[in-house]
Write a structure and sequence with these properties.
Distance between the termini of chain B: 33 Å
Radius of gyration of chain A: 22 Å
Strand content of chain A: 25-35%
Largest interface: A-B, 44 and 32 residues
Number of domains of chain A: 2
Helix content of chain A: 25-40%
Order of helices and strands of chain A: EEEEHEEHEHHHEHEHEEHEEEHEHE
Distance between the termini of chain A: 62 Å
Strand content of chain B: under 5%
Shape of chain A: globular
CATH architecture of the largest domain in chain A: 3-Layer(aba) Sandwich
Largest sheet of chain B: none
Order of helices and strands of chain B: EHHHHHHHHHH
Largest sheet of chain A: 6 strands, mixed
Oligomer: heterodimer
Structural class of chain B: mainly alpha
CATH topology of the largest domain in chain A: Rossmann fold
CATH class of the largest domain in chain A: Alpha Beta
CATH superfamily of the largest domain in chain A: P-loop containing nucleotide triphosphate hydrolases
Radius of gyration of chain B: 19 Å
Number of strands of chain B: 1
Helix content of chain B: over 70%
Number of helices of chain B: 10
């Protein structure tokens, strides 16, 4: 069976999802009318809190789950009816730390490349290239079981990329990865996009992902809350600033502050409230309660916070 | 990136088998040693239980211990490994690759067969030596062992895939060991079991595996080689078809 999966027109969406609904047998509605379309070379971020429906969406794209209704097309092929096409077209990095026990890092990359249909010399060449590019040379003979979480993650990423897939689905690719290799990963993801590979990126690391994402969707409750480029979504909070704050004790928040749902000491406030917030910070400093603060323009984290629900702060983290 | 690709199920089977053998390579020696120790325990243990053991009983014990080795790998270790792979997401990972489901299942079965065979041969050798038996090895012995292994492993795969949870699979496999050791015509003649256990054994593949092993190694009366091979083939094929269907389910 010889096959080339790259014959589709470049003008066609690589991944096209329409009105996707997935209701589990227990009644949980995990995806409720999701539509999105990824162009060739696009790095598309999928953001949302735990339980938002991201994993369910990904599992349907991969052909592991059948949608309740709606369509998923890859390169124009209905992969709900033809899940085998999805498997041939999509390289996947799962979220969990999949433990392939005594398989060495280089064996994983090579084997997945072979299973993705690459001839032995091409798989070998690709394996060596990825080991070099991702700084995996010292770990090539490390077993997956003995490797650190970060090295397993990078090896899994390399395996996802090794098959030269048309579409990559990467679920939290930088979890547990050290800062230097994280940068390598982001650079490689950006490079893959520039080279024409389409990437569906599930991540919570918005600050870093922002540099490579061309478009993103924020989903919660199984629905897309907002979708667009980082720049267009930032306009949602263009009238706001964000404050990173570390307080030296229990501090009653200023009424103008909107809490970060994650509770990490990041707050949004209206630009017009800057004088009031500055005065409040000065008062905290005088009382010896201000350890550190930083005020800046809104980031994707702030967009995310706004999208999943603004809350008024009840306590400033110490 | 206009890459030409080849998706050949036989090549995939070989790749997957090699990959799974590599997964186990850190434990292969340990697994084989455990198999041998279990065989040793059965062969010697039954001798301690029956100091005046007859040649016929010793033949049942030795061939039963060899069959127990196949059961342990095919119906205990394999389902436990697959259930763990299911729970930890490893199976899903392989299911996202463009590989034949049958190749994936056959690869698992091949790996446990490779791991089981040394223990089987060891139990026969140590049993024959310990009890002073002379086993007459029929040329059909090797294919019978392979068929029995694949048939039991097919059932093990089905069990793991159908089972809703790792703990359920583990509980069932413990019951299987208990059943095969004490209540099945594997280590003992069928006519020594009470009537309901004799009837139950009609639908229990380990009984047919033991019968086929005995038929190709001993001249003990009451074996039905052809019937056992047919049942093992049919149950193995049916379990594989069921597994292949179940593994394609998409929830």
């Amino acid at each position: 069976m010889q096959e080339s999966v790259f014959s589709a027109s470049v003008s066609r969406a690589v991944l096209d999802i329409r009105d996707l609904r997935k209701q589990y047998r227990n009644g949980t509605l995990a995806n409720d009318g999701i539509s999105l379309s990824l162009a060739p070379g696009e790095v598309y971020g999928l953001l949302g809190p735990n339980g938002a429906g991201k994993t369910t969406l990904v599992r349907q794209v991969l052909g592991l789950l059948r949608p309740t209704s709606g369509t998923i097309c890859i390169d124009g092929v209905d992969v709900v009816a033809n899940p085998g096409f999805a498997r041939r077209s999509v390289g996947f990095l799962p979220q969990g730390q999949f433990d392939l026990q005594s398989v060495h890092v280089d064996e994983l990359i090579f084997s997945v490349a072979r299973l993705r249909g690459l001839a032995r010399p091409e798989a070998q060449r690709k394996t060596e290239e990825l080991i070099d590019d991702l700084g995996l040379a010292p770990f090539r003979k490390t077993s997956m079981h003995a490797a650190s979480g970060g090295i397993r993650r990078i090896a899994g990423f390399a395996a996802a990329v090794a098959g030269n897939a048309r579409l990559l689905v990467l679920d939290e690719p930088t979890n547990d990865v050290d800062p230097i290799r994280r940068q390598l990963l982001w650079n490689m993801i950006a490079g893959l996009g520039r080279g024409g590979t389409t990437v569906l990126l599930v991540t919570h690391n918005l600050a870093e992902a922002e540099r490579v994402i061309t478009r993103l969707a924020i989903i919660d409750g199984g629905r897309i809350l907002r979708e667009g480029s980082p720049a267009s979504l930032r306009s949602v909070v263009t009238e706001r600033l964000h404050l990173d704050l570390t307080a030296g004790g229990d501090v009653a928040p200023h009424p103008a502050l909107l809490a970060d749902p994650a509770g990490g000491g990041r707050f949004l406030f209206d630009q017009r409230d800057l004088p009031a917030v500055s005065g409040w910070l000065a008062a905290l400093r005088e009382d010896g309660l201000l350890l550190d603060f930083r005020i800046g323009p809104p980031t994707l984290d702030d967009i995310y916070a706004v999208a999943v629900g603004e809350q008024v702060c009840t306590e400033v983290p110490a | 990136m206009n890459t030409a690709r080849t998706f050949n199920p036989v090549s995939q089977y070989l790749q997957l088998t090699a990959m799974h053998l590599r997964m186990f390579r850190g434990n292969i020696a340990f697994i084989m040693m455990v198999q041998c120790v279990l065989s040793l325990g059965l062969v010697y243990g039954f001798g301690y239980l029956m100091p005046q053991i007859t040649t016929t009983t010793a033949l049942f014990v030795v061939t039963g211990a060899a069959t127990q080795g196949l059961v342990t790998m095919g119906l205990v270790m394999l389902p436990q490994f697959l259930a763990e792979a299911k729970q930890e997401g490893r199976m899903d990972y392989f299911m996202t690759l463009p590989v034949s489901r049958e190749a994936y299942l056959f690869a698992q079965m091949t790996v446990v067969a490779v791991l089981a065979l040394p223990g089987v041969l060891f139990s026969l050798a140590i049993g024959a030596w310990h009890y002073g038996l002379s086993l007459s090895i029929d040329p059909a012995f090797a294919p019978v062992v392979v068929l029995a292994m694949f048939s039991l492993a097919g059932l093990g795969v089905t069990m793991a895939i159908v089972s809703p949870h790792l703990q359920v699979t583990n509980a069932i496999t413990q019951l299987i060991i208990f059943y095969v050791l004490f209540f099945a015509p594997v280590l003992m003649p069928k006519d020594q079991l009470p009537g309901f256990l004799q009837q139950a054994s009609v639908v229990m593949p380990p009984a047919y595996a033991a019968d086929a092993v005995r038929a190709t190694l001993t001249s003990l009366p009451g074996t039905h080689l052809l019937q056992s091979l047919l049942v093992l083939s049919a149950s193995g094929a049916a379990s594989l078809v069921l597994s292949a269907v179940m593994i394609r389910r998409r929830g």
